Amino acid sequence: MKISYIRRIDIDGEEIKSANDFHDAISEITSIDGYGRNLDALYDALTSSADLIVIHHTDLLKKNLGAYAEKIFEVLGDASKANDALTVIYM
Predict the structure, then answer these.
(1) pLDDT over 70 at 84, yes or no
(2) What is the SS3 assignment for 57?
(3) How many helical (H) and strand (E) elements, i.e. helices and strands, does the chain have?
(4) pTM of the predicted structure, to 2 decimals
(5) Is 72 left (phi over 0), alpha (psi -120 to 50) or beta?
(6) Mean pLDDT across the chain, nearest whole number?
(7) Angle at Cα 68 formed by Cα 62 and Cα 71, nearest 5°?
(8) Of residues 31, 30, 27, 29, the one with CA closest to residue 19
(9) Predicted confidence (pLDDT) per residue in 47-73, tens digit
(10) C-beta separation of 55 from 91 below 8 A
(11) Are 41 and 35 in contact (CB under 8 A)?
(12) Superfamily assignment of 9-90 in CATH?
């Protein structure tokens, strides 16, 4: 019997002030070896794992990162379509 688990990743948009902050948070939370700190690397990581990602203060993340936040949301959406084991919740 194979036992799987879902990792919960909480991102607080209030604390994310830059693209580097976002990638720092992903790196710290996920402990992905060799994480490339870019959106392509994020997509690759999320399409090969079972995760629940909860984005808190979505409005502040959009305010702080502008167009980059929209790219993040696009990557999260694309990854969740490609990976049935990935769930993204925006709060």
Answers:
(1) yes
(2) coil
(3) 4, 3
(4) 0.87
(5) alpha
(6) 89
(7) 100
(8) 27
(9) 888 889 999 999 999 999 999 999 999
(10) yes
(11) yes
(12) Barstar-like (3.30.370.10)
